[in-house]
Amino acid sequence: MIGDRVKALRKEKNMSLSELAEQAGVAKSYVSSLERNLQQNPSIQFLDKIAPVLGVTVNTLLDPDDNQKDVDTDWVNLAKSAMESGISKEQFKEFIEFNKWRINKK
Fold this sequence. Notes:
Protein name: Transcriptional regulator
Structural class: mainly alpha
Number of strands: 0
Keywords: DNA-binding
Pfam family, one: SinI
InterPro entries: Cro/C1-type_HTH, Lambda_DNA-bd_dom_sf, SinR/SinI_dimer_dom, SinR/SinI_dimer_dom_sf, TransReg_Diox_bact_type
Organism: Jeotgalibacillus campisalis
Shape: elongated
Distance between the termini: 50 Å
Oligomer: single chain
């Protein structure tokens, strides 16, 4: 069940229910009811909020056998921060290319 997966992932990260709820911006009571399998059909929006905090994709929460590599939460937060600061995708790509060039020059 999805609640069992959420609970296991939360415990792997040594997070309390309160920490998960606060970082994801969701109600602690809802997370608790999900983990206790009282709530068994969470919305995609809810899963979209908790997945990055748990360091996984929504697909991983829905299908534990999904072989898709989990996204590192720090990378997700970095990308969000870049977007919020006004950096365009093109500028970000240019930076990556420049950095590759700089590394190859050494």
